[in-house]
Automatic annotation (TrEMBL):
Main localization, broad class: secreted
Highest classification ranks of the organism: Eukaryota, Fungi, Dikarya, Ascomycota, Pezizomycotina
Residue ranges of domain Glycoside hydrolase family in the record: 91-357
Reaction catalysis annotation: Successive hydrolysis of beta-D-glucose units from the non-reducing ends of (1->3)-beta-D-glucans, releasing alpha-glucose
Organism, as annotated: Aspergillus kawachii
The protein's name in its UniProt record: glucan 1,3-beta-glucosidase
Gene Ontology terms for molecular function: glucan exo-1,3-beta-glucosidase activity
Top EC group: hydrolase
Enzyme Commission code(s) on record: 3.2.1.58
């Protein structure tokens, strides 16, 4: 989630033992995003912490910080133990069982860069994230044949000035060669993780999320203006380097590209049609618009029609949620969740809800609290999918 809610103030070791390069069509056990349809959720608040997702956790450990960077600074030596406990408990195999029971086939898993590399200058914690990731992903793949999207949600220096991009106010990823190089080291590690998983065909690699260099006042965040053309050129340089890296190790692994809030149409011309690429678009409805629970499906449909590209590349909706700006209504949640799922399936390759678990108790306009609108497991408990 892009997390404006309440925070305006605020290596080289990835050579494959497995794959001689193959055209992506030559190995049918890999996913072809042009034909695959995913029914997904995000595992938010697990390997990346956000203030809004779990109020109890945040209140207990953050010391009032806006972001994970500050939370770790506040916890000092306790940051490691607190986060290791979080990794062991927030998402467990029981969650995967529950998600599978509701027909979930895709898990999009946000990670910080610190899961992959340990930068001495960073407050973000480098610990056993990948061990937990391995355990949960193996289980989801082997038990339910789920597909895993590994999302490196933050990158060194900060990709959007928000809590989730590294830290609040950090935009130093842009135009910074040192951070660019670190980011590619992160990607080497992710590729290595996938290649040594025993099931590389079950993964998609997503190397960035919601890059934005024009949101100092936050007004344009969530819109195409959040990323300037100059910023987009830097993002493009990075994505091309990632695609080349992945292709040189295993071209069957799809790269998922979250091109900020610009439409896929903006980027499509930058890649040859043969690129093993899928776009990820994010759609939220709780600000910048006159949305309500009553009219939400119209907004979703308009987004689906406008922002699904030209057909040159497949598009997957990697984040969305049903909170509206005004007049949220508990009774319309089921209709809106099902409408959204249906629309994203029809106009794109499916979607991943934000997020699997959410206990945040901030109130919303209309009825209820955020947790009533953002928690997929609640929707499962309420029987929306049975
Ligand atoms: C397809 O990929 C799987 C997983 O990497 C591998 O086990 C299998 O040998 C590959 N098949 C071909 C025909 O390359
Ligand atoms: C939200 O939850 C936190 C942590 O449990 C609690 O301290 C706070 O009072 C709650 N806020 C509301 C508005 O209920
Ligand atoms: C990471 O996991 C290993 C193996 O389970 C364990 O020995 C180690 O203490 C863990 N590290 C931390 C920082 O918890
Ligand atoms: C790159 O960013 C880092 C912080 O992430 C900063 O310390 C360094 O000075 C920056 N380099 C340049 C050339 O701006
Ligand atoms: C980044 O990596 C490139 C290629 O490996 C290297 O030529 C360049 O010096 C590096 N730049 C920095 C600032 O580390
Ligand atoms: C940055 O956002 C502002 C709105 O706050 C917009 O007017 C401007 O055109 C954007 N700048 C660029 C370079 O896209
Ligand atoms: C929200 O409800 C109020 C009161 O019924 C109504 O005046 C307003 O137009 C509604 N807003 C939207 C965006 O539907
Ligand atoms: C989605 O497709 C199904 C099956 O074709 C159809 O019944 C449904 O009306 C479509 N929904 C939307 C919103 O396009």
């Amino acid at each position: 989630m892009y997390n404006l809610l309440g925070y305006l103030a605020a290596l080289g070791c990835a050579q494959s033992a497995l794959a001689a390069p193959l055209a992506s069509s030559s190995n049918s056990s890999y996913i072809d995003w042009r034909t695959f349809k995913g029914n997904g959720v995000n595992l938010g608040g697990w390997l990346v912490q956000e203030s809004t997702i779990d109020s109890y956790f945040w209140d207990k450990y953050s010391g009032g910080a806006s972001d994970e960077w500050g939370l770790c600074e506040h916890l000092g030596a306790q940051c490691g133990p607190v986060l290791e406990h979080r990794y062991a408990t927030w998402i467990t195999k029981a969650d995967i069982d529950k998600l599978a029971s509701a027909g979930i086939t895709v898990l999009r898993i946000p990670t910080t860069y610190a899961a992959w590399i340990d930068l001495p200058s960073s407050q973000l914690y480098s610990g056993n994230q990948t061990a937990y990731l391995r355990e949960i992903a193996d289980y989801a793949i082997n038990t339910y044949n789920m597909h895993i999207v590994i999302d490196t949600h933050s990158l060194p220096g900060g990709v959007n000035g928000l809590t989730i991009g590294e830290a609040t106010g950090h935009w130093y990823w842009f135009y910074n060669e040192t951070n660019f190089n670190y980011s590619l080291q992160v990607i080497d590690q992710v590729i290595n993780f996938i290649q040594t998983s025993g099931s590389p065909q079950s993964y998609t690699l997503e190397p960035i999320s919601e890059p934005a260099d024009n949101n100092t006042n936050m007004v344009v965040f969530g819109t195409p203006l959040a990323l300037t053309d100059h910023g987009a050129a830097w993002v493009l340089k990075y994505i091309r380097a990632v695609i080349q890296k992945v292709a040189s190790v295993n071209p069957n692994i799809p790269v998922m590209f979250q091109g900020s809030f610009k439409y896929p149409q903006y980027w499509e011309g930058d890649f040859p049609a043969s690129t093993n690429l899928v776009f990820d678009t994010h759609h939220y409805y709780y600000e910048h618009m006159e949305s309500s629970s009553a009219n939400l499906p119209e907004y979703i449909l308009a987004d689906a029609r406008e922002k699904s590209g030209t057909g040159k590349f497949p598009v997957f909706v990697g984040e969305w949620a049903i909170q509206s700006t005004y007049n949220n209504t508990l009774a319309l949640r089921k209709r809106n969740v099902l409408a959204g799922l249906d629309i994203w399936q029809n106009y794109s390759q499916g979607s991943a809800y934000w997020t699997a678990k959410f206990t945040g108790n901030t109130s919303v306009d209309g009825q209820g609290e955020q947790k009533d609108y953002w928690c997929y497991e609640t929707f499962i408990d309420e029987g929306y999918f049975s």
